[in-house]
Amino acid sequence: MKHRAWTIGFLVVGLLGWLTAAAPSTGVLTGTVVDANGRALPGAKISAISPALNQPLSTVSDAGGEWRLENVTPGVYRLTVERAGFISVVKRDLKVTAGKTLRVDVRLSPDIKLEVEETAVAADASAPQVRHRQMKMAGHPRGGYAGLEAPTPMPQWNTEEYAHIDENRFHNALESPLSTFSIDVDTASYANVRRFINMQQRPHQDAVRIEELVNYFHYEYPEPKGRHPFSISTEISICPWNNEHYLMMVGIQGKRTLGGPPPASNLVFLIDVSGSMNSPAKLPLLKRSFKLLTSQLSARDRVAMVVYAGAAGVVLPSTAGDKADTIMAALERLRAGGSTAGAAGIQLAYKVAEEGFIKGGNNRIILATDGDFNVGVSSTSDLVSLVEKKSSQGIFLTVLGFGMGNYKDARMEQMADKGNGNYHYIDSILEGRKVFVHDMLGTLFTIAKDVKIQVEFNPAHVKGYRLVGYENRRLENEDFADDTKDAGELGAGHAVTAFYEIVPAGSDEVVGGSGDLKYQDKKITPDARRSPEWATVKFRYKKPDKDTSILIEQAARPLKKAPSAVFRFASAVAEWGLLLRDSPFKADADYAAVAKRAREARGEDPYGYREEFIRLVETAALLKETEDKPESAVREPRPSVPHRH
Predict the structure, then answer these.
(1) Which of 209, 304, 412, 629 is the most exposed place for a label (fewest CB within 10 A)?
(2) Is residue 446 within 8 Å of residue 490, measured between CB atoms?
(3) Which residue range(s) make up the domain with 378?
(4) Residue 349's closest CA among 397, 301, 392, 289?
(5) Residue 395 lies in a domain
(6) Torsion over CA of 566, 572, 575 and 581, rounded to 10 degrees?
(7) Where are the beta strands (DSSP E) in 518-621?
(8) Vertex 242: Cα angle to 189 and 245 (nearest 5)
(9) pLDDT confidence tier of residue 374, bands split at 50, 70 and 90
(10) Residue 138 · residue 107 · CB < 8 Å
(11) Of the ranges 148-157, 173-182, 204-213, which one carries the lowest mean pLDDT score?
(12) What is the mean pLDDT of residues 262-278?
């Protein structure tokens, strides 16, 4: 009997031990994010903070507004839900228990109410025509940031400015066989368009620059070989949005590594701390983004910080890049308030950059602003002249745009173009990570400057052609061989993609031309007829420290096989741009076809950028559908929000 009792005891202890070991040690947080009308809100950022953790847990809501955090350590949490255009919600004292799922459903209210009007306005003689997007605001943005002063009331009227885009048209290949343009690796338009769509708005037509949408993504072009710092790829296939036409893709891939340690950097952070920057999507987001960059620097690098509001000043003298605590502390002390002496800030930043100039190094000013310069000598032409002069002396300018409402896109794009730098729009900390971490080499280190492309079409195969996008990068044909003419820069790892829509020879389609000429006889040569080449693509570039360009040529022929995944995905992005612009050249472009092609050609997507693109396409399609139909015709059932259990 005693032996039996011992046996039962051991069994009970063993069973209890097994149950204890098998019991889960973590919990789950999940929920749904919807708007005031109960519609799902994708793209909302959810952060869970607990004293038990060293850093917050975070995720993003999916297309159905659903989110989920697994393997959550038991404890009491504070949950924050944020999304551009909505008032943030904080849920406190949420108790997570091991083995349990806690559901937290959140309804976000709009931050601002916008009534949109458009007017064309006059700009500087040297600047492109600018269109204002006027937004009448009811109420003020809410939300805060540790240590930030209370926001100043926003004006009743707020304006965004975009340079007007007159889309490229078809040219007759027999009469005008040459097409010349500068490369563009800016990505600001994509992030800005994403901001509009995430706010459930169709983007301003002139905010959509198709080349910047396409070049937001990395493509699997071959790695450069030989003495040139980039590889060249061409591909011709049927045009997805017009099967009577062909589409030619031209791809440039910059070398993905520098072949050794990067050159030392002399960086000047030029930060707008004026009153217009006093909102959560501006200065607080700016600080977080610059902290990401700071963490990438080394002892060989130097960082100085200049700020401007009513006046300009140096808040951090040139400091070693490995002094991250010192640099971040200077960022934390920044406060917003006052008017915007942007011109004075830029002049001071160049002075500081000149004092710390590193010969053979990366000398660069990084300007972070909403672009709203309104005090001092601030005409676009004056600022651009200054930037262009300094870039010729080896100090480049990268421009980062923040915020909404008074965003001055046209001015910032032009300054970055003339400053031999990039132009990015930062709408979230994830975009800050893309620019300053994932794409840091390309953002900071130039491997080729004044890169120009000239395409000569063979009229034996091509009746007409149209460059898709790059409207503000067009060059005169004679500028191609002129080394005094400025063009775009290519950073390490950057890829540049351009598309030409082609009307094939033999088509009945009428392509503009001058007709018969009295003194010239327009004929196709026998050599052109015998050649299988549809075009010859010519490239010119300069090494960053040289003033003489190098020429490369490559012929383009149509494919005899199915188009590559790169062609299919990149052309899907271009087609989306045509739809967003409501382009007169969109032909049979279709949102569903874009999403399908992008999904099939998505390939590797380590950071989720391509999956996000597909979501944006689907959201834009819904916005277009509901905008085009009268309200009575839209029969969308109101989704129910699951009850918390």
Answers:
(1) 629
(2) yes
(3) 265-270+278-401
(4) 397
(5) yes
(6) -110
(7) 535-542, 550-556
(8) 105
(9) low
(10) no
(11) 148-157
(12) 90
